[in-house]
Write a structure and sequence with these properties.
The complex is a heterodimer of chains A (113) and B (113). Chain A is mainly β and 113 residues long. Chain A has no helices and 11 strands. In chain A, strands 2, 4, 5, 6, 9, 10 and 11 form a 7-stranded mixed sheet that branches. A 4-stranded antiparallel sheet of chain A has the order 1-3-8-7, with no helix packed on it. Chain B starts with a strand and ends with a strand. The radius of gyration of chain B is 14 Å and the shape is globular. Classes of the chains: A mainly beta (113), B mainly beta (113).
């Protein structure tokens, strides 16, 4: 069964910590995305990548960075975690040439205390 | 004004009822229209995919796109308690590369036995 795997389901981190969220897909998809999902705000795009080592900012990139060293892996980095980054983080992937929507991971619920 | 508007609900109906979920959008360039279903504490999963206008049926689910009115709908017939979830509409323009989906806020649906 093809899928997108996020390394942690639940994380609790302290304010100021550097946090790494990992995402791996086994579908050989070129595109990968990071969203956060908050009640009342829906899904908001943080960063995306269309190729190895390529990245582009989404709608809310402040306080985040990303890394894509291999095609199957896309990491989201919170440089200095803050309480307003407490959220559900969703990773997704899609094919480059023909668009059939995204495949999402199960999400990581991050709490910053 | 948001590009995609979706009533967040919550919507509660009895088992067996026909459910109608809707989204409106403002960008006439959107050509891909999707519905995702998201169970509690899970990532969204693609439920229906439509390119351009028209209807698409898959079992108890029917997706409709009316581009002239910038309005899309998802109908669920013979609703079941297992259909209880949040339903997200999503749409995108035609183009190369990393297609960015724009999501509605999601409608929380509960089917009561």
């Amino acid at each position: 069964d093809v899928k997108v795997t996020q390394s942690s389901r639940y994380l609790v981190k302290r304010t100021g910590e550097k946090v790494f969220l990992e995402c791996v897909q086994d579908m050989d998809h070129e595109n990968m995305f990071w969203y956060r999902q908050d009640p009342g705000l829906g899904l908001r795009l943080i960063y995306f990548s269309y190729d190895v080592k390529m990245k582009e900012k989404g709608d809310i990139p402040e306080g985040y960075s990303v890394s894509r060293e291999k095609k199957e892996r896309f990491s989201l980095i919170l440089e200095s975690a803050s309480t307003n980054q407490t959220s559900m983080y969703l990773c997704a992937s899609s094919v480059y040439r023909v668009f059939f929507g995204y495949t999402f991971g199960s999400g990581t619920r991050l709490t910053v205390v | 004004q948001k590009e995609v508007e979706q009533d967040p609900g919550p919507l509660s109906v009895p088992e067996g009822a026909i459910v109608s979920l809707n989204c409106t959008y403002s960008n006439s360039a959107f050509q891909y229209f999707m519905w995702y279903r998201q169970y509690s504490r899970k990532g969204p999963e693609l439920l229906m995919y439509t390119y351009s206008s028209g209807n698409k049926e898959d079992g108890r689910f029917t997706a409709q796109v009316d581009k002239s009115s910038k309005y899309i709908s998802l109908f669920i017939r013979d609703s079941q308690p297992s259909d209880s979830a949040t339903y997200l509409c999503a749409m995108s323009r035609v183009g190369q590369g990393a297609q960015k989906l724009v999501f509605g806020q999601g409608t929380r649906l509960t089917i009561n036995p």
